[in-house]
Amino acid sequence: MQTKWRYTIPWHIVFLLFITTLLFPILFAIGSSFRPLEEAYNDVLNFIPWNPTLENYRIFFGSMDVIQITFNTFLIASCVTLFKVCTSFLAAYAFVFLKFKGKDVLYFLFIATIFIPFSVTMIPNYLVISDIGLSDHLVGVMLPQLADAIGIFLLHQSMRTIPMSLIEVARLDNLSHRRIMKDIVLPLVKPAVTSTSIWFFILSWNEYVWPVLMLKSVEQYTLPLALQMYMSSEGGTHFTVAMAVAVVTMIIPLLLYLTFQKYIIGTFTSSGIK
Amino acid sequence: MNKEIRFDEVSKSYGETEVVKSLNFTIREGERLILLGPSGCGKSTTLRMIAGLEPLTTGDLYMGGERVNDVPSGQRDIAMVFQNYALYPHMTVWQNITYGLRVQRVPKDEVKKRANEAVRMLKLEGYEDRLPKDLSGGQRQRVALARAIVRQSQYFLLDEPLSNLDAKLRATARKELVNIHEAYRQTFVYVTHDQVEAMTVGERIALMYEGELQMLDTPERVYHQPRNIFTATFIGSPPMNVIDVSIIDDVIQVEKQRIPLPLAWRRHLAGISQKRLTFGVRPEHLSIDKEQKEHALCGTVKYVENHGDTYAVYIDIAGVEWIALHEYRNWTQGETVYLTTESKRMHFFDRETTLSLGYPIHFLEEEQ
């Protein structure tokens, strides 16, 4: 019994430190968002709100159309997720179940695009979107994000586990590709599709650099841009208000994650093992 | 409608490797044909070409008199049972059986009627709402069969359907398959590497080896009159003894031993100029004796293997190993024994071409 304790206590300490490091910024944001600005400035690291106030939230909701901004963020994230999952699903289906010339080379090229940094494509994308007149427009934010090789890769990994004979039985039944996708492949890769969707949603929800480049008018802003208003040279340094925005930004993805966490964890572990 | 399947110079290659070489044969309407052969002989590829799951490299495939090279799988009117059963894991037994029909827009009453009949026939009552993962291997196999039956297709293809079952289940499943075929009489093509399955299920056997058809005939002929050495040694367990011999002055010479060539064979082989032949005899057709006998080959017992109902006695004759089956175990290592066989149990093959030299005509008449 004693040896068991001696063995486990150091590990518990390591994990505790690890979790604290992960949770600290989140607790800091939540705590600070309920503190008066002056008090927060005097003692930054002590984030526990001894004199809790809703002032920061009042300032945020009073100075901006929060509903509109949240809606913008939600609209972009939902459309991007929907499109990206659809394109990834179709591409992965083709790469796994169809036979065509150059399939392996093409798949390799697709996967290679994962390793191209955003900064490389940022300027060309900006020029193209401006040229077609979609800058400062939500569609302009969405457009370059509608397809992603990561999604193809994740769904490809998941579809590969479906035995080919299932698809062959369907072909003998004279099923169309649409039917095979809807009735056979989709139900079998549903956990992967769900978790990929959640992941895409969170990525797009948190996206900062691209919307900053694209969006100029406040009514088109997304939540990460609103956050910047209180933390930059233009918006001053109302960091407690910024923390309130951060908390609002966090709520929807957090709810999504809590609802679907079983799928998300499942996908990442299974794509690693298989 | 004529439901035969005809291969006309059909071959299949993957890159440089030719897995099926110029096949020419016909599967008759309504027959049970077994594609038999060791693994990698091209039998499954042949079946998949019939199903339209593999395109032909060269040649033409005809089904029901129509060239089907470019006809997609779904339009060939085929039901197929896969080795791993290929049941949809997210659908219940009932959904698995009826899904194909529902997609084809078969009227609901008809779907129900056919599925109920199949469920009854394959004793799946009470399992309709279960998922495949909650079934045993034998039950899954029966669901796969039920799903194929309800389609009422003209062609019924089975790719090693029993290989995942244990020996006892396999015996009952074989009978079930024959019953199903007797009931519906589709053109039935069955792939297996198991010769017992081939013998029990098949009306005709197509034996394949290295992508080539070795023999296509009834199970009896394949066993009693093999067309070549491969067929002779592949069918039967333990395999046929095949030994190089010379025939000089109507005497068979096995190394230094000589036995006279029986009269019937003397006449039959008279016209054959090549006298260096391969002689074959099945272990079950060799008699062993401790006493010296006339026209017997003399050898030494190497070891004895227990096969349950019989014993396989391994005998050394001038450095070549022969196998004989015997009822009793009363053989000791190193003992001298004498082997004889009946003339109608002998086989002779051309050493160059490995082809059978045929059989004296009255032997053939006796077989029939």
TrEMBL record, chain A:
<dbReference type="GO" id="GO:0055085">
    <property type="term" value="P:transmembrane transport"/>
</dbReference>
<dbReference type="GO" id="GO:0005886">
    <property type="term" value="C:plasma membrane"/>
</dbReference>
<feature type="domain" description="ABC transmembrane type-1">
    <location>
        <begin position="70"/>
        <end position="260"/>
    </location>
</feature>
<keyword id="KW-0813">Transport</keyword>
<feature type="transmembrane region" description="Helical">
    <location>
        <begin position="74"/>
        <end position="98"/>
    </location>
</feature>
<protein>
    <submittedName>
        <fullName>Carbohydrate ABC transporter permease</fullName>
    </submittedName>
</protein>
<feature type="transmembrane region" description="Helical">
    <location>
        <begin position="105"/>
        <end position="126"/>
    </location>
</feature>
<dbReference type="Pfam" id="PF00528">
    <property type="entry name" value="BPD_transp_1"/>
</dbReference>
<feature type="transmembrane region" description="Helical">
    <location>
        <begin position="184"/>
        <end position="205"/>
    </location>
</feature>
<feature type="transmembrane region" description="Helical">
    <location>
        <begin position="239"/>
        <end position="260"/>
    </location>
</feature>
<keyword id="KW-1003">Cell membrane</keyword>
<keyword id="KW-0812">Transmembrane</keyword>
<feature type="transmembrane region" description="Helical">
    <location>
        <begin position="12"/>
        <end position="34"/>
    </location>
</feature>
<comment type="similarity">
    <text>Belongs to the binding-protein-dependent transport system permease family.</text>
</comment>
<keyword id="KW-1133">Transmembrane helix</keyword>
<keyword id="KW-0472">Membrane</keyword>
<feature type="transmembrane region" description="Helical">
    <location>
        <begin position="138"/>
        <end position="155"/>
    </location>
</feature>
<dbReference type="InterPro" id="IPR035906">
    <property type="entry name" value="MetI-like_sf"/>
</dbReference>
<dbReference type="InterPro" id="IPR000515">
    <property type="entry name" value="MetI-like"/>
</dbReference>
